[in-house]
């Protein structure tokens, strides 16, 4: 982990400004656009070099779309993404392709993320050869190094993906992401498809790799468990928007947004002494993302909702601990809400 | 097709795939490749194995026809329409040529038409389907409508008309079948590409900066090979029947070159049907055996390559 | 639903136009032109040229296409090169026998295929299942013409039970029994092909349904196997079977061409062969166009039928 005090003085490696990714909904005889799903709807955050930012939220909140947009798998509708001080959304051409190599992704499902027809060797060699990362005669040595980095025996390189377990496959996926020596890796729920016992191993591997290779991570997850363990800071997302960002301990000790509080209530804390007595259980369903009302997206489920929440959209405000909520400083209502 | 194939991806069940170290070492020794698994499953399909053997024998006959044939298949002999004898094993045809030797040589025509035309249309269909599926949008829309147009004509009808325009000959039949057969392949490939495009390993290749043609040919198409191979196998059987039908109608391979189909042309006369069965029954049976063998091989391949039967 | 139908219709229109263009291109690739067919053989090149000009054959292709389309839309398909009759009239004469043949073949083919396929699926890997699989492969692998010749050899020549071809005995006036006798063999040949294809399909569809969880539930409830198969499974298995009948039409038409030739059945198939032999392109093109339209309509009906039968489609 990077020392919390130095972080703020370093220029961020990734800066995301007002990022929006919308999908259009087509309907009817002529496939006209009848609306759009605002999967990511104005997201701002930054990640410093060597840092891990956790991005959490329930499924469908757009967290994976953020990751996919950053690596270019989804087309951004609006916004800017500065990576290494270059705008990677508007730029194109071979220069941009080179920059993009420094931004890689690890997928959630270790089964669909490896081509069943290729041996481990082929999977890892291809990007190295295509981009001439090392001299042709050194490619094989580089593959050995990658396997060693992720803790797999060299002998595995002649085998096919179906011969491996989920955890081993995920290690291969990590080795592949490392093959181009990236600076930033987007970990899109890399452990949620794995067994609990394996999850810890993979998380430790990622932490070790971060230290060894000076990597920066955007760690996407739906639960707080893994994120707490690996992240320096955590961003909480709800329906396409970030509702709160803070250092990990801040989020856990002093959550501000009612949605974060609800997520924390659902997170089991082993020591009963430390369990907070407050418990927020949100009711109702997530609103249909293709038909959002004005005002706060969380309005319909929020125990602290007041009239302004229905009419106006709260902005992410605050220097050290930004929160997007009108009720944050509303002590009375806050406590009343908790007693509900 | 309404009998919907279940999704290819194996179910996520981490427990099932969790090996301990000893198991891994054990697996190292086994090293069972994809192809060996497929081969093993194919060999379990008895009819398919028999079909493959029969097909192999027919191929041998086609290659070594000059050495097996007892007579010159084009030689006109004294006896017209003679019944089977020691001299002419399956008798002679109405012009006096040896039926047995002609049947052997005709196997070449059937196999050439079958493999040749299927090869042509599989290549065309794969390219069109892959481009259509990968790039989508307007290109896809146009290609698919063209495919619809081609598929609206009953195949045999179009082939008959086109043959009547360009003239019947072995080469023309192969080319025409090849050029007209692509739509079903294009549909098949497009469907597979569409679903593979969304799979993570393809997305990973995109993020790794692999070029689009390379993704298409090296990552996507190899995964389409299985259904394509099955489709092509049944296609060969179908093409052999179409050639035989065309030749039977006199619109296919022209004498003196012998084809199993054109050897049956004489049987359009009721006298030949009733009094000279050696002229039409043997070549007919050869068609049935060959087509049956190929269909069995196709069925075996389908079962062996079926992702549903992985375990 | 209405939107789905509209959408399918709108897709069908460009395809239909594509079909006419494709057809028109083939017409124009054919050697010879109508003038040489109709004009006095002694006509001088100048006279022929004059006649071509008069018939508009020197106009640009696009104009010729629209002129052809225009007469097409008025039901005018031109004149047969061989009989000089209007093609529309010839087609109408020949359509009846072909529809009769195809309809009966489809009916009997399914009548064989559905029960056998279901039985085969419920007794998977039994001797009956293997026999059925063997029969269906044979049905797919025998060319129509060979099966037809074999049928004639056995039933007409050897056993002398049935006529060798035609629609009725010449000069007899064609009583009901006579007609039926003439129908048996060609229907048998076509139906065998359909049954061969459909048995596998019915079997696969039934196996698919039999493996579903709701059938396990039905069994767990204590329902008898007979009820499970025939009430719960059959209904769901039949939906895909019945609805895709339309997709058989192109193959059925191809099969009809050969079968009609073998049995000299005076339908559109035989007309096709005769037109090809006499290079009667207007007739040929009309047949091609008509069959393409039939196929399009059949596909359209299949789609609609399927979406009605399977509620899952409607929502997409």
Description:
The complex is a heterotrimer of chains A (340), B (311) and C (316). Chain A is α/β, with parallel strands linked by helices and 340 residues long. Chain A folds into two domains: 14-254, 3-Layer(aba) Sandwich (Rossmann fold), CATH 3.40.50; 255-340, no CATH class. Chain A is built from twelve helices and ten strands. Chain A has a six-stranded mixed beta sheet with strand order 6-7-8-3-9-10, sandwiched between helices. Chain A has a four-stranded antiparallel beta sheet with strand order 2-1-4-5. In chain A, strand 7, helix 7 and strand 8 form a beta-alpha-beta unit. The longest helix of chain A has 18 residues, at 196-213. Chain A is globular. Chain B is an all-alpha fold and 311 residues long. Chain B folds into two domains: 1-44; 46-304, MetI-like fold. Mean pLDDT of chain B is 84; it is low at 1-31. With 316 residues, chain C is mostly helical. The longest helix of chain C is centred in the N-terminal third of the chain and has 36 residues, at 87-122. Chains in contact: A-B, A-C, B-C. At the B-C interface, helix 6, helix 7, helix 12, helix 13 and helix 14 of B face helix 1, helix 6, helix 7, helix 8 and helix 10 of C. Chain C: It is a multi-pass membrane protein. Chain C: Residues 95-302 form the ABC transmembrane type-1 domain. Chain C: Belongs to the binding-protein-dependent transport system permease family. Chain C: This is Peptide/nickel transport system permease protein. Chain C: Keywords: Cell membrane, Membrane, Transmembrane, Transmembrane helix, Transport.
List the SSEs and their pairings.
The complex is a heterotrimer of chains A (340), B (311) and C (316).
Chain A: H1 4-7, E1 14-27, E2 32-47, E3 52-56, H2 63-70, E4 78-83, E5 86-87, H3 93-100, E6 103-106, H4 120-130, H5 139-149, H6 166-178, E7 184-188, H7 196-213, E8 216-221, H8 224-230, E9 233-238, E10 241-247, H9 248-253, H10 258-266, H11 307-311, H12 331-339
Parallel strand pairs in A: 3-8, 3-9, 6-7, 7-8
Antiparallel strand pairs in A: 1-2, 1-4, 4-5, 9-10
Chain B: H1 21-30, H2 34-43, H3 46-63, H4 65-68, H5 99-135, H6 137-152, H7 155-166, H8 170-180, H9 182-197, H10 200-207, H11 212-220, H12 225-248, H13 270-275, H14 277-305
Helix pairs in contact in B: 2-14, 3-5, 3-14, 5-6, 5-8, 5-9, 5-12, 5-14, 6-9, 7-8, 10-11, 12-14
Chain C: H1 2-29, H2 34-38, H3 45-55, H4 61-73, H5 87-122, H6 127-141, H7 144-158, H8 176-210, H9 213-220, H10 225-243, H11 249-262, H12 268-277, H13 281-309, H14 311-314
Helix pairs in contact in C: 1-13, 5-6, 5-8, 5-11, 5-13, 6-8, 7-8, 7-11, 8-10, 8-11, 11-12, 12-13
